[in-house]
Design a protein that fits this description.
The chain is an alpha+beta fold and about 575 residues long. The protein folds into three domains: about 1-200, no CATH class; about 220-420, no CATH class; about 425-570, no CATH class. About 50% of the residues lie in helices and about 10% in strands. The protein has 28 helices and 14 strands. The strands form five sheets. Strands 1-10-3-5-2-4 form a six-stranded mixed β-sheet. The protein has a two-stranded antiparallel sheet with strand order 6-7.
């Protein structure tokens, strides 16, 4: 890095910056991450501009020759003069709003940001259906920037009519507030222009230093930044892999699109690649490794950087290999996880993918042995919530086991055996099922165990596997989640707390027609009706298949919940042991 000053401080009104984006004069360097802000952050940004509050410095890099870049304005083909090094989220948000243009978000989808304004209350909000119906609101402030302001104000006031009488605010004040929205265009930004003499490596260093302060980027973003400088093709391949996983492929060409609808993001793939390549769970170490850091003598060298990028490239090729990806997906699916919504921890998914690659390539396990081990480890990591809290330290510890020639299966089995004790199955797991959330990790594993057992929806010819399949759209409206002890029945018993009513142990999938028939009857009333055509052995088999206590209709609600949680836990245990 140069010792002299390499930037030029300037000020620009927002309108100038937006127009430069519109014409293509300002774009994004490839080292930038995607647009990741949610609508609430965009709303708060507009509110700050309206109130004249500081919103930070913009840093631009002047380029003197063509380089790799990304467009903010998707409709412009002009070569840019400046690239945004800091301020991407702010400028992209404001461009979409002020020019009423689509932008590309982190899921590779085109979106148009919609922010609403209430001139009476001087309040900004993310547009919603209620705002659309309320004449007090301007549903989309883009209209303020695209119309004659005086005509726009008159149309707005004519819509209010009687509400002006109800509110103490005057027409003049309303007009002033709307004009203040348009005057956002005159908001003055402080801009630092980096010299065109800087090369991409120097700019990437500036980018990392800037984003290491305040609210930092993910460590994976820094790794992707290095890739943008040293291996652009590899970064593009990661992004394309992520993008194609979200699109149904055309024709017969295979892509990363998959049967359980897992949509990876670049960070998750980077984590897998780093884990496989360097046996590292902490991505900050991987960033230093790719910079060329030698941890023994604490020096950075060009030779080390090239060698480490070659190792990273090998892991990259294996992680993005479609055969590996789909074989791993099939393993997860065969364990009962037919829908990504059943997978509470995506980190557990990608750590398991790392272990799959290690087992296949570095330990050369036979496929059947590898399949069995990966299934067990994946479910184990979900059951125990292994990668919640401080996941990187746990991943680092797990991967460190394989830095020598350790027995792959033996090491993983030892960890599993040490944690899944008899007390875990009989005491800890039933406690984990005390939840009213259908996203509870233990409940989701219970559903996966039913799928693994090829179970049907209660009193139906529809398999739970088919109902949960994200790619099958048929028959879904015919299935309902039934409260075994119905809500209204419990209310009549004095149980009004919805968290208590909606306990996971009180839920079961059933056909809608049967749920309607049950309504608010007690189990003692409806169960004999639903099972009247069954023999006694068939009735007993139904209770066993759906983990219902043998005489559940005779139990009080608290007793029922405890007994069913125990039965659900036993099913999960048996399911895990069968894996």
């Amino acid at each position: 890095m140069r010792n002299n000053v390499v930037f030029n401080p300037k000020t620009y009104p927002l309108l100038n910056l937006i127009n430069d984006i519109d014409t293509g004069n300002i774009a994004l360097p490839d080292l930038q991450r995607p647009f990741v802000w949610n609508s609430t952050k965009v709303r708060d940004l507009v509110d700050s501009l309206y109130k004249g509050l500081p919103v930070g410095i913009i840093i631009l890099w002047e380029i003197s020759e063509p380089t790799r870049y990304r467009k903010i304005n998707l409709n412009n083909k002009r070569e840019p003069r400046f690239l945004v090094i800091d301020g991407q989220q702010r400028l992209t948000s404001l461009f979409s709003i002020i020019k009423n243009q689509e932008i590309v978000n982190k899921n590779f989808k085109k979106v148009k940001l919609r922010i609403s304004f209430n001139p009476i209350k001087e309040k900004f909000e993310v547009r919603n259906a209620a705002i659309e119906r309320d004449p007090e609101w301007i549903p989309d402030i883009s209209a303020v920037f695209h119309n004659d302001i005086y005509s726009f104000i008159n149309r707005y006031l004519s819509k209010l009519k009687s509400r002006l009488v109800e509110n103490s605010i005057s027409k003049e004040r309303i007009a002033v507030n709307i004009e203040r929205v348009k005057n956002i265009l005159n908001y003055t930004f402080s801009v630092l222009e980096l010299s065109s003499e800087l090369d991409p490596e120097e700019v990437s260093e500036i980018f990392v230093r800037i984003n290491s302060k305040g609210k930092p980027l993910n460590q994976s973003d820094f790794i992707l930044t290095l890739m943008a400088v040293y291996w652009e093709e590899g970064r593009k391949e990661i992004e394309e892999f992520c993008e194609l996983s979200r699109k149904i492929p055309e024709g017969n060409k295979p892509t990363s699109f998959n049967i359980i609808n897992i949509n990876p993001n670049p960070e998750q793939l980077v984590r897998t690649i780093v884990g496989y390549s360097f046996l590292r769970g902490r991505l900050k170490y991987a960033y230093l490794i790719l910079k060329g850091r030698d941890f023994e003598n604490k020096t950075i060298s060009e030779g080390m950087r090239k060698r480490n990028f070659e190792i990273f490239g090998d892991g990259h090729q294996k992680a993005l290999n479609l055969t590996n990806w789909h074989d791993f997906i099939k393993i997860i699916q065969s364990a009962g996880f037919v829908n990504e919504k059943l997978i509470r921890s995506k980190i557990a998914f990608f750590v398991s993918y790392t272990l799959y690659l290690l087992g296949k390539y570095k330990f050369k396990l036979p496929y059947k042995d590898l399949e069995k081990m990966i299934k067990k480890w994946f479910v184990f990591s979900l059951i125990t919530q292994r990668y919640t809290g401080s996941p990187e330290s746990v991943i680092e510890r797990d991967l460190s086991l394989f830095r020598d020639e350790s027995n792959f299966v033996q090491k993983l089995e030892e960890i599993i055996k040490s944690e899944l004790t008899e007390d875990y199955w009989s005491i800890t797991l039933p406690q984990k099922l005390i939840s009213s959330s259908t996203q509870n990790h233990a409940y989701l594993i219970y559903l996966a165990s039913l799928v693994y057992n090829d179970s049907y929806v209660l009193f139906s010819d529809i398999k739970l596997r088919d109902y949960l399949n994200p790619l099958l759209k048929t028959k879904k409206k015919t299935i309902d989640v039934h409260h075994i002890f119905p809500r209204n029945y419990l209310r009549k018993q004095g149980i009004a707390d919805m968290k208590e009513i909606n306990q996971a142990a009180n839920l079961i999938y059933i056909e809608y027609k049967n749920n309607i028939h049950i309504r608010d009857k007690s189990p003692k009333e409806y169960w004999p009706v639903l099972t009247k055509n069954l023999t006694f052995p068939e009735k007993q088999e139904i209770l066993k298949k759906y983990d219902l206590p043998g005489n559940f209709w005779e139990l009080n609600y608290a007793e029922f919940l405890k007994e069913r949680r125990d039965l659900m836990s036993k099913r999960i245990m048996n399911y895990f042991q069968r894996l």
